[in-house]
Amino acid sequence: MKNVTDSFVSLVHWPFAGSFGFNTDILATNPINLSVVLGVLIFFGKGVLSDLLDNRKLRILNTIRNSEELQGGAVERLEKARARLRKVEMEADQFRVNGYSEIEREKLNLINSTYKTLEQLENYKNETIHFEQQRAINQVRQRVFQQVLQGALGTLNSCLNKELHLRTISANIGMFGAMKEITD
């Protein structure tokens, strides 16, 4: 049992190469590495993320403006329809005796078609806004994931060198050999 404890103690205190050393305490190094990676991602990624969100916001605002212009056109058509309705009502007074029921039918059809057109335009505007929001969210998610993955790979590649890799393998082989001697 003492050999196993000695092997762990020897792994913790590796000799330093100049002023450079490796901390093999996994509990101490992972939070530090994660905080460094997250700090780098937040520092470098927030500008890109804010640019993406600003661009998406501008697109959504342009879409909203376009929808409002379409709605303005529909309101203008509604006003024209109302003016036509007033004209039809004046003609109705003239032809009340002959065609009152016909004029009322035309008036209702005109109002219904105008309201249907307005409802369709409002639905189109809401669907467009929802679609653009979902598309913006998906694009931001994809970009953030790509940046996180690239940052993690860069960090791993810059921290792992051949000497460290070989020393880790040798230490693990020695530890397993000591454990095998104890169990035998």
Automatic annotation (TrEMBL):
GO terms for cellular component: chloroplast thylakoid membrane; proton-transporting ATP synthase complex. It is found in: Membrane; Plastid, Chloroplast thylakoid membrane. Keywords: ATP synthesis, CF(0), Chloroplast, Hydrogen ion transport, Ion transport, Membrane, Plastid, Thylakoid, Transmembrane, Transmembrane helix, Transport. Its main location: membrane. It is a single-pass membrane protein. InterPro entries: ATP_synth_b/b'su_bac/chlpt (IPR002146). Pfam families: ATP-synt_B. The keyword Protein transport does not apply. GO terms for molecular function: proton-transporting ATP synthase activity, rotational mechanism. The chain crosses the membrane at residues 32-49. Component of the F(0) channel, it forms part of the peripheral stalk, linking F(1) to F(0). In plastids the F-type ATPase is also known as CF(1)CF(0). Belongs to the ATPase B chain family. F-type ATPases have 2 components, F(1) - the catalytic core - and F(0) - the membrane proton channel. F(1) has five subunits: alpha(3), beta(3), gamma(1), delta(1), epsilon(1). F(0) has four main subunits: a(1), b(1), b'(1) and c(10-14). The alpha and beta chains form an alternating ring which encloses part of the gamma chain. F(1) is attached to F(0) by a central stalk formed by the gamma and epsilon chains, while a peripheral stalk is formed by the delta, b and b' chains. This is ATP synthase subunit b, chloroplastic. It comes from Leitneria floridana (Corkwood).
